[in-house]
Design brief:
By secondary structure, the protein is of the alpha/beta class. The protein is 42% helix and 12% strand. The N terminus and C terminus are likely disordered.
Length: 1172
């Protein structure tokens, strides 16, 4: 077996071992035993059409469409979906398609979806597809007598080695076993994942092997775990490529003989593309309908296999991405997969489709969308109008622009004000819809301090709402009307600001096409002017190369009369133009700033059409003489006229760019003011904050970026300081983005080698492989440090199960055998940390004051202790119990009473009152001779009488005298699992996505602006030790939560220890600030704690395997860690070590029981001698 290429996605659950001849027979029998346990005996029923209500106990409701169906599988987030919705979900992830691919998928679906999952393995198996080609599964391949009876002398195995390691006994070598039987054996690693390139990666090797078998006259069987997806895909490829059948005919041929096949929609798409390339798609023959009818008539015959097929299809959809994976998804697959996490755009959505396109091209991140875009939601769900009727602050093509503010914000907070533009789809003509799409999507794509901020986009079936920054200073047009022409100094200051933003949008590839005084607005203090209204804007075609030449790719006479460039007016003849049209329009605006007059605008005559035509002709036919006459009306010196003359050059190829105008000597003085700001962060402080941001964990950085998009949480003076710092760094090139050279020019102007080296290091820590930082990214790095709730731990590699350590050889079992007594495994567990000598140090008398116990727990870093009662019984005590008791007492307090008095009373009570009052973990002692299996059953809730409840989280191990000698926890299980190949392989074959609860995690989170009591209630109700503190505004509606802090039951130890009970009556925000102060430690102490494996919180990406998740849990020694999603930069789950145990226990127990039945054990070693 070769090195693992990527994560396995098992089509089947574990199959037992093989050996030589008898070993193969034994293995086949063991697999058959397993199949019987999981599927046989159930009476099969034909698949029924979906209904709106349950008509039989076997029906389940689809979580997406709401129909009740008998055939269902789990969606990507674990919910039950019908076959149709599974297909829709997968194809949304695989998009985009061409129209031919879309049609091909529909045809393939008509063949494959027309057959019930219960129509599996009809007739004699393995399926004989040709007189020399068979299709089968692992069970059939391991049956030596079956292979001999068919004359099969070659095996093409598509199960990758990680799966085989989990399925078969350790050190099994199939290649050797088959060679002893004169069976030609070929192993081609593959994966049953949606995005795995089965045809590209596996077909060439498979084709060569199959051709060899045919040339040598061998009969060959192609197998994967279930003979359903991968092996069927390869067989269909053979018929399509080598037998020259059409795809639909090949599918029908294989399906007739094997039953339902290829539920992997990614494989279907690959086959469609191959068929289109070969021009062999074909037409359906109707055989699928006949097979469906036969499956109904013969339902009872395939009952066990059918139920098994449904379970396989459902479970295989949860695959893992290994840290060892050497193959990466393609750029397109990864991008579309990133988009599909939560965006479910409505059909024909005006903005949705555009946004999806930008995300798939990686020009817009899901991380940004997560807090800005809200699908199928009205803005009134989050905002309210500031008055009744709403206050109108402007107007547009869709109607009035009115004031609003976010719910639950103070009416006195001016910075909480927003303005909203609502677009009712039913009242909009197509041109206006296009304008709306442009405006929203371009706003989402741009970040600049001189562009009015777009805070939220709401879209449902009836309307779209854009919630914008409210600039209270009025428009530039208003300023001209009230104050008249600008002085030269005022003009230069405005010119630099306006050219900076135009230069930025041009470099970003956009052309505004409607620059005029009304589209520039002031902040309240009128110190800054910002660009708005991108409705006519467009992405510049690359063909123009920005040279300003005619025919540059832009067409359409768009904009406002009087500000149109000559080439735009001339474009009525479809000659094309470039971004240089904006320079002309800005030049006209600059003329008005100087003169207070319009350059090309006339009073309307009796015929508006005539007046408009005269103005257009005047612009289009303007001459140099006319322009000079115009410039003589400018009441300024020749330098100002020369500057305007450059902008109002009729020939766009001679017209300068915004960058060139910014470098004009006329603006040098105004440009210099940017390099001498009145207030900005010092270089030292910039480096300090970059260092802090670079060291922050991924979830914290994501939250800070979300905060930078909406910086109204900062005091105005602090925000201005950050924005001015950006201006300072941007002043070097005025491009609107920060690159390394500009950064070094500010933070390391002296150019010292060590100074430059340190600055470069900090830049790389923040930017990674990025060449530059956007405005919001730069602001995020400069935000005042917030609590980094998450710490990234890089644990040392666990001891390799392939090369057992001396401890494995001499002090414990060499292979996984949970039937052995737990005492055999205790020696493999790491010595307890922090110098604890014995469990006896953790036992307290029931009358010990709770305050004294907590102080010992803080000093010794205990998370739990044991309470001994006079009656002789014992119970566990941990911080969950303090929290539960406090919450219970709070429910009995009179209105107006405070938690502080309740906590003061509780702290002096004996610890015996608290022990396990939360029911979190019963004290259930077992002897050292108890099989490990029984302990795992007890913890996982799989034992008798547990009812599957999480009543036991740790199990005390006692000696013959009843003394506790060790406590076995879920972390102990993970520690053991990492030392053996079988459980390690199972962990590696499962993806963490199974714990993705992004749709419901808000219920297990605490809002930052709520009370401490509310947070404690959430922890108690959800039975959690820790939960995220979040903000609805920052989190958005795409699932998951942006984390601004973490609250834990262990925080109560600082309240008890300090005696500051009054802090419990404060807000969550104030509580977190206080906790961070009282729990702060020196860097040396923090380093020591990390060496001891003590972390506050750790996050793991949801795309990792359970193996990676387990290593993080072990390295951090935490009870729970957070599941994060890199796709949307949010926390999407909370996972405990017990959750992992429950998830994999069934598979581990199944393998162990099968090995007990089929493979005798010699001591603690698995013996294959009986099977050889």
């Amino acid at each position: 077996m070769g090195k693992a290429l990527a994560s396995p996605a098992p089509e089947d659950a574990p199959a037992p071992p093989d050996g030589g001849c008898s070993g193969l027979r034994a293995a086949g029998a063991a697999v058959l035993t397993w199949l019987t346990r999981w599927g046989a005996g159930a009476a099969a029923r034909p698949a029924a059409e979906p209904t709106m209500g349950p008509s039989s106990p076997s029906r389940k409701k689809c979580a997406s469409c709401g129909f009740f169906v008998e055939e269902f599988g789990r969606g990507t987030r674990g919910v039950q979906l019908c076959r149709s919705c599974i297909r829709q979900e997968d194809e949304e992830r695989l998009a985009p398609f061409t129209s031919e691919e879309r049609a091909g998928l529909d045809l393939v679906s008509s063949v494959l979806e027309g057959v019930s999952w219960r129509y599996w393995k009809p007739g004699e198996q393995p399926a004989e597809l040709l007189d020399w080609l068979y299709l089968g599964d692992l069970r059939e391949v391991l049956d030596v007598e079956l292979l001999a009876s068919k004359g099969i002398t070659a095996v093409l195995n598509l199960i990758n080695w990680w799966e085989l390691t989990a399925l078969l006994p350790e050190d099994t070598d199939l290649s050797y076993i088959f060679s002893t039987r004169d069976v030609l054996y070929k192993e081609v690693d593959s994966e049953d994942r949606l995005f795995y390139k089965m045809v590209e990666n596996c077909w060439p090797a498979a084709e060569a092997f199959l051709q060899r078998c045919r040339d040598e006259g061998r009969r060959v069987i192609v197998n994967c775990a279930a003979g359903h997806n991968r092996s069927a895909c390869i067989c269909v490829c053979w018929f399509l490529v080598r037998e020259k059948m059409t795809l639909l005919a090949a599918l029908e041929h294989v399906q007739q003989r094997r039953g339902t096949i290829i539920s992997n929609h990614g494989f279907r798409l690959q086959l469609v593309r191959l068929a289109l390339e070969l021009h062999r798609l074909g037409e359906p023959s109707g055989v699928a309908g006949k097979m469906r009818s036969e499956s109904i008539d013969d339902a009872d015959a395939g009952a066990a296999e059918g139920h098994l097929m449904q379970r396989i299809i459902s479970s295989k959809r949860f695959s893992a991405k290994y840290s060892e994976n050497s193959q990466n998804f393609s750029e397109v697959a990864s991008a579309t997969r990133r988009l599909s996490v939560r965006v479910r755009a409505k059909k024909g959505g005006s903005i949705s489709d555009k946004v999806q396109g930008l995300v798939s091209q990686r020009k817009l991140s899901m991380e940004l969308l997560a807090c800005l875009v809200h699908w199928n939601k009205s803005f009134l769900a989050d905002y309210v109008y500031t008055s009744t009727p709403p206050t109108v602050v402007g107007s547009g093509f869709s109607g009035d622009v009115v004031l609003c503010r976010r719910k639950n914000t103070s009416e006195d907070d001016v910075r909480a004000l927003r303005c909203v533009k609502r677009f009712y789809h039913g009242n909009m003509i197509p041109d206006h819809l296009e304008k709306l799409m442009n405006e929203a999507v371009i706003y989402l794509s741009l970040e600049h301090p001189l562009i009015a901020r777009l805070f939220d986009v709401y879209e449902d079936e009836e309307e779209t709402s854009l919630v914008m920054q409210y600039c209270a200073g009025g428009t530039l047009e208003d300023m001209l009307d009230t104050s008249g022409p600008f002085s030269e100094g005022e003009f230069q200051n405005h010119a630099v600001q306006m050219l900076r933003v135009v230069n930025y949008i041009h470099r970003a590839g956009f052309v505004h096409r409607d620059i005029k005084p009304r589209n520039w607005v002031y902040e309240a203090d009128k110190s800054r002017v910002k660009l708005i209204d991108f409705g006519f804007s467009v992405k510049r075609l690359l063909a123009s190369d920005g040279d300003g030449s005619g025919g540059g790719g832009l067409t359409g006479c768009m904009g406002t009369l009087g500000y149109l460039a000559p080439e735009v007016v001339h474009d009525r003849l479809d000659t094309g133009y470039t971004e240089k049209c904006d320079i002309w329009s800005l030049g006209v605006v600059f003329f008005e700033l100087f003169s207070g007059e319009h350059a090309f605008q006339r009073e309307r005559g009796t015929c508006d059409g005539y007046t408009q035509e005269v103005t257009l002709r005047e612009i289009e036919e303007v001459t140099e003489e006319a322009l000079e006459k115009l410039l003589r009306r400018v009441p300024a010196g020749e330098a100002a006229r020369a500057f305007l003359r450059r902008m109002l050059t009729k020939d766009p190829t001679q017209r300068p760019s915004a960058q060139e105008l910014l470098e004009d000597p006329y603006l040098a003085e105004a440009r210099a003011t940017l390099r001498k700001p009145s207030r900005a962060l010092s270089p030292t402080e910039v480096l300090r904050r970059f260092r802090s941001y670079g060291e922050a964990s991924a979830p914290t950085r994501a939250s800070m970026l979300a905060m930078a998009r909406s910086p109204t949480r900062l005091p105005w003076s602090q925000f201005v300081e950050l924005r001015t710092t950006f201006d300072l760094v941007d002043s070097k090139d005025l491009t609107g983005v920060v690159n390394l050279e500009a950064f070094l020019a500010v933070v390391a102007p002296g150019g010292g080698e060590s100074e430059q080296r340190e600055a470069r290091r900090l830049w790389e820590a923040v930017c990674g492989e990025q060449e530059s930082l956007s405005y919001c990214e730069f602001l995020a790095a400069l935000l005042p440090r917030i609590e980094d709730a998450f710490e990234d731990t890089t644990p040392s590699e666990p001891k390799s199960p392939k090369e057992p350590t001396p401890v494995n050889h001499t002090r414990g079992p060499r292979s996984w055998d949970p039937s052995l007594p737990v005492s055999a495994y205790l020696t493999l567990l790491e010595p307890k940390r922090l110098g604890r000598k014995s469990v006896g140090d953790m036992i307290f008398d029931e009358n010990t004051p709770m305050l004294d116990v907590v102080r010992v727990m803080i000093e010794m870093h205990f998370r739990w202790v044991v309470v001994r009662y006079r009656s002789g019984r014992h119970e566990f005590f941990d911080y969950m119990d303090i929290n539960h008791r406090l919450v219970t007492v709070s429910q009995k307090l009179e209105r107006g009473s405070r938690l502080a008095s309740a906590m003061s009373t509780l702290s002096s009570m004996p610890v015996g009152v608290f022990a396990n009052c939360s029911g979190y973990s019963k004290f259930v002692p077992v002897g050292a001779s108890t099989p490990l299996r029984d302990i795992l059953q007890l913890i996982s809730g799989s034992g008798r009488g547990t009812g599957g409840k999480a009543e036991v989280h740790r199990v005390p191990i006692v000696n013959a005298n009843g003394q506790v000698i060790e406590v076995f926890s879920c972390l102990s299980f993970l520690e053991l699992a990492m030392r053996f190949r079988t459980p390690s392989a199972v962990l590696k074959s499962r993806g963490s996505r199974i714990f993705d609860s992004r749709d419901t995690i808000l219920e297990a989170s605490v809002q930052h602006d709520t009370t401490v009591l509310n947070g404690l209630q959430v922890l108690d109700a959800q039975h959690l030790t820790v939960c995220p503190v979040t903000s609805r505004e920052l989190s958005g509606d795409l699932g998951g939560v942006a984390v601004v802090g973490v609250i834990s039951v262990s925080d109560l130890k600082w309240v008890v220890h300090s005696g500051n009970f009054g802090i419990l009556d404060s807000s969550i925000t104030d509580f977190l600030t206080w906790r961070n102060e009282v729990s702060a430690c020196s860097e040396a102490e923090m380093y020591s704690l990390r060496n001891q494996g003590r972390y506050k919180c750790v996050s793991v990406d949801a795309e990792e395997s359970l193996y990676v998740l387990a290593t993080k849990l072990l390295a951090s020694r935490l009870q729970r860690i957070f599941l994060s999603s890199e796709e949307i930069a949010r926390i999407v789950g909370i996972v405990s070590s017990r959750d992992i145990l429950v998830e994999v226990y069934g598979e581990l127990e199944l393998q162990s029981s099968l090995m007990d039945e089929k493979f005798p054990r010699n001591g603690s070693h698995l013996s294959l001698s009986a099977a050889m």
